[in-house]
């Protein structure tokens, strides 16, 4: 009889989000069985993973959905007991910084208390010595600390989201040190892709640029154009997540590119990819991005989109991840912007079908 080793089982919370989709692809390619912890919603939230749920005909189904919620202890207990995962990637979060000012309690419930529920469920079920955990920490932990930021930089969060994630970070470290849990915090800086949610600034920009390039008479309205972010590709970042859980010893790592670009610069690059130019005129809330030949306003500042408090300059130092994990981002800023704009252009300009009139030889 052929003895097949048991497949590794990974549980992903936040499986329907941007990172959950990229991580599932990576884990399936590595031969894992992937268990997705998914909220039940009134509409479908499976858009990014529908192709994994359906599976391809004739292939063993290795992507399994489980309904649950980070605010519901019983569902976490049930799914953990059923799946008995070797690795847990805790990606579930109310992840929008601006939204966290409007919904601080909901944000803390999922992003901070949700982690406590998960860690206690792991302990109660007896998985502490048997499973490894990735906690999705964030550069928002650093908040007001100036760049470059690394693992030793002081945490000074600037939003309810950042504060909730600081709590989650320390809960993870506490369970690691108190109970010997193999838990690693990935302190990831911003990462983007064509799968990015459309209320985050990069995707909001690339979608608007595509529509404008397609002829829409639209003005792209943005908040703080001066904010600097360290933007990586999500595909590169999920490789770092996986790598952390393959280490014998758990630890915390910054995942970043080491480059910072302003929102204004992202906008200019995105229009450039679509064959349009913007020239900046005016200052502060009067600033506009103008198409030089026509004088048409393409970009305007909307004061309503400014946040009560803001992380200004983000630039990560991922030296530790490079040294210990051998991790490095592969996608440049220019490649990232180009990939996102081209994907959104393809969505507004579906390929033209060749119509052959009857009777006319093709
Ligand atoms: P998304 O916002 O795209 O996805 C968030 C996921 O969490 C979704 O699947 C969402 O489900 C799920 N979720 C939200 N609330 C709950 C809940 N109460 N119970 C169960 N699931 C829930 O985030 P990303 O993929 O971009 O980010 C993944 C993680 O990494 C998040 O924790 C985020 O805070 C963190 N992070 C992200 C960075 C980035 O730049 N992308 C940078 C640093 C950290 P649904 O689809 O139903 O809404
Ligand atoms: P961020 O990402 O807050 O860094 O959090 P987001 O894309 O929302 O904002 C980046 C910067 O752009 C400025 N900005 C705008 N932002 C949005 N969303 N919409 C606008 O119209 C707009 N105009 C300007 C913001 O003020 C900000 O400075 C992301 C999330 O993925 C978090 O979950 C993650 O932890 C951090 O990145 C690292």
TrEMBL record:
Lineage top rank: taxon: Bacteria
Domain NAD(P)-binding: 11-340
Catalyzed chemical reaction(s): GDP-alpha-D-mannose = GDP-4-dehydro-alpha-D-rhamnose + H2O
Cofactor list: NADP(+)
Single GO biological process annotation from the record: 'de novo' GDP-L-fucose biosynthetic process
Keywords annotated in UniProt: Lyase, NADP, Nodulation
EC number: 4.2.1.47
Pfam families for this protein: GDP_Man_Dehyd (PF16363)
Molecular-function GO terms, alphabetical: GDP-mannose 4,6-dehydratase activity; NADP+ binding
Enzyme class: lyase
PANTHER family: GDP-MANNOSE 4,6 DEHYDRATASE, GDP-MANNOSE 4,6-DEHYDRATASE
Entry's family note: Belongs to the NAD(P)-dependent epimerase/dehydratase family. GDP-mannose 4,6-dehydratase subfamily.
Function: Catalyzes the conversion of GDP-D-mannose to GDP-4-dehydro-6-deoxy-D-mannose.
Protein name: GDP-mannose 4,6-dehydratase
Gene name as annotated: gmd
């Amino acid at each position: 009889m052929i003895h097949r080793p048991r497949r590794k089982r990974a549980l992903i919370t936040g499986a329907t989000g941007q990172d959950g989709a990229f991580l599932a692809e990576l884990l399936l390619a590595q031969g894992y069985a992937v268990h997705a912890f998914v909220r039940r919603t009134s509409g479908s939230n499976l858009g990014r993973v529908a192709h994994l749920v359906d599976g391809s005909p004739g292939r063993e189904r290795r992507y399994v959905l489980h309904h649950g919620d980070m605010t519901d202890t019983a569902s976490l207990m049930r799914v953990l007991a059923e799946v008995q995962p070797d690795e847990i990637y805790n990606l579930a979060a109310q992840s929008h910084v601006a939204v966290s000012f409007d919904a601080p309690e909901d944000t803390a419930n999922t992003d901070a208390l949700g982690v406590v529920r998960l860690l206690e469920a792991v302990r109660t079920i007896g998985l502490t010595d048997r499973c490894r955990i990735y906690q999705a920490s964030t550069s928002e932990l650093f908040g007001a600390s100036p760049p470059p930021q690394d693992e030793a930089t002081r945490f000074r969060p600037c939003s309810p989201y950042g504060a909730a994630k600081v709590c989650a970070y320390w809960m993870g470290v506490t369970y690691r040190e108190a109970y010997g849990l193999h838990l690693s915090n990935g302190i990831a800086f911003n990462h983007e892709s064509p799968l990015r949610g459309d209320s985050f600034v990069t995707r909001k920009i690339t979608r608007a640029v595509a529509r404008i390039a397609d002829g829409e008479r639209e003005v792209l309205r943005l908040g703080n154009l001066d904010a600097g972010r360290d933007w990586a590709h999500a595909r590169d970042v999920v490789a770092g997540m996986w790598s952390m859980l393959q280490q014998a010893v758990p630890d915390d790592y910054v995942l970043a590119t080491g480059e910072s670009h302003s929102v204004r610069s992202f906008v200019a690059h995105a229009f450039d990819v679509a064959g349009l130019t913007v020239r900046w005129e005016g200052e502060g809330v009067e600033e506009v991005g103008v198409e030089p030949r026509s004088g048409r306003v393409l970009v305007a500042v909307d004061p309503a989109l400014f946040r009560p408090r803001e992380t200004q300059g983000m630039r990560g130092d991922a030296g530790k991840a490079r040294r210990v994990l051998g991790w490095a981002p592969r996608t440049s800023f220019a490649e990232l912007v180009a990939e996102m704009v081209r994907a959104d252009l393809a969505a507004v300009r579906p390929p033209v079908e060749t119509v052959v009139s009857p009777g006319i030889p093709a």
